[in-house]
Specification:
Blueprint (H helix, E strand, L loop, with lengths): L1 H6 L10 H5 L7 H5 L13 H4 L11 E7 L2 E8 L10 E3 L8 E7 L6 E8 L5 E3 L12 E16 L4 E19 L11 E20 L4 E8 L2 E13 L16 E10 L2 E9 L4 E10 L6 E10 L2 E7 L5 E11 L4 E10 L17 E11 L4 E12 L2 E3 L15 E17 L1
Antiparallel strand pairs: 1-4, 1-22, 2-3, 2-22, 4-5, 5-7, 6-7, 7-8, 8-9, 9-10, 9-11, 10-13, 11-12, 12-15, 13-14, 14-17, 15-16, 17-18, 18-19, 19-20, 20-22, 21-22
Length: about 425
């Protein structure tokens, strides 16, 4: 039993993929969020650094943009009951607000075919906190994640209708995980494993943008997989003094270092945009996220834990798709009204839901407003609501080699995301 617990000890640690696979609420541009996060076929401003570097060269003015959002997520859990009996146990997360941000800057000489840019944004990052004594405490108590992507970019306008662009991505982040060790509980205290570490990785972003006519444009964007490598992680084991008979299973001092690699999947996006009139802009995007790169989570320890120097937990993710639709209506020369919708397919298979990614197919509904303060300043606001489908996980669906990593029951996710950005053009 102890070995099984230790094998899944860090099963909840893939926090670097929480938002992409669990609460996928992409937040890389407030104007785009208001339009269902469509942006592959648009050339609004410096936010093209993320959405499609190929369209950056078509932005007329140089631009600096700072934006941020507040993420309030809510996950409910209803315990599994045999023989279809009504469940008498329910728990809910106590997650604090998440604060992802984006900063973009673009610059180029007047009439130049080149445009240069720098993007700093947070595509993955969240906090999940369950009550310390909830039913699944031995799988997860809390998870804190921070990540920042830095992307220098160059874009080139091949002609009046075609542009290409590329950016190099440096990713850095940190994660902290807490979980109980159920079999080692004792009257004088609880057992807990705490994991913390920093990670980094490299990737790239490629874009192609084309104008079929003055009213119709399209785009292709590929964001590569990023392997987030934890090279100096630290695992701490807190065990009550009354369990001294098994202290020898843990490293001296209850502490050891570890290394791990967490994959952030590649994404291929295709988009189309149509200026349906002087006031109405319509857009649609299709994203394919290659989550099949994430098949297991493996950790290598500096000191043996219960005689083992590595552990692994299955994930078995599958590639998933997202379909997005958005619209922008210019109510006046200064005011824009936006709306959008997207359907996000889950990459998590039956039996593999965990308390930090109790994932299900999601519907996202967004709205936004834009206000041109002056010739140089633009203010954009958005609101995104994400509703995850109620999803049940039965004991029979959980893989035999991971019974201690996953909890049977019914999960429900809701996410609320208001956001604001200020842009300066010159």
């Amino acid at each position: 039993m102890i070995k099984k617990i230790l094998l899944c000890l860090f099963a909840a640690a893939p926090g670097f993929s929480v938002l992409a696979g669990g609460f996928q609420v992409a937040l890389q541009g407030q104007r785009q969020i208001g339009m269902g996060h469509c942006g592959t076929a648009l050339s609004f401003d410096a936010s093209s650094i993320f959405f499609n570097p190929g369209s950056l060269a078509f932005s007329i003015k140089n631009n600096v943009q700072l934006g941020g959002s507040l993420i309030k997520s809510r996950v409910q859990f209803l315990a599994w009951q045999e023989e279809n009996a009504p469940s008498t146990y329910m728990s809910e997360t106590e997650s604090p607000l998440g604060t992802p941000f984006s900063l973009y800057a673009s610059w180029g000489f007047k009439n130049s075919r080149f445009k240069f840019g720098l993007g700093v944004y947070t595509p993955y990052g969240s906090s999940v906190k369950w009550p310390d004594n909830w039913k699944g405490y031995s799988v997860l108590r809390s998870l804190k994640l921070q990540s920042i992507f830095v992307q220098p970019t160059v874009s080139f306008r091949l002609s009046d209708r075609v542009g290409i662009g590329a950016g190099l991505v440096y990713a850095t982040g940190a994660v902290e995980l807490r979980k109980g060790i159920g079999a080692l509980s004792a009257p004088d205290g609880f057992s807990e494993a705490r994991l913390s570490g920093a990670a980094d990785g490299l990737g790239y972003n490629l874009g192609f943008f084309g104008k079929i006519s003055d009213e119709l444009s399209f785009g292709l964007n590929y964001r590569s997989k990023v392997e987030m490598k934890v090279s100096d992680g630290e695992a701490n084991f807190q065990v009550p003094s009354s369990t001294t008979g098994i202290l020898g299973l843990f490293p001296p001092g209850g502490k050891t270092g570890f290394t791990a690699t967490l994959p952030l999947p590649a994404t291929l996006s295709a988009g189309i945009a149509w200026q349906a009139g002087k006031k109405l802009l319509l857009s649609a995007d299709f994203n394919r996220v290659y989550w099949s790169a994430y098949q297991e989570l493996r950790f290598n320890y500096e000191a043996a834990v219960n005689g083992e120097t590595s552990t692994a937990s299955p994930r078995k993710y599958s590639d998933a798709s997202i379909i997005r639709f958005g619209a922008e209506y210019m109510a006046s020369d200064k005011i824009a009204i936006r709306g959008g919708y997207y359907f996000d397919q889950t990459p998590v298979g039956d039996g593999y839901m965990t308390p930090e990614t109790p994932d299900a197919d999601r519907n996202g509904f967004s709205a936004g407003l834009g206000y041109r303060i002056s010739d140089h300043f633009q203010l954009d606001a958005s609101f995104l609501y994400v509703e995850g489908k109620t999803r049940e996980q039965s004991p029979a669906s959980i893989p035999a080699d991971a019974q201690d990593s996953f909890i049977p029951g019914t999960y429900k996710i809701r996410v609320f995301v208001p956001g604001l950005s200020l842009s300066y053009q010159f």
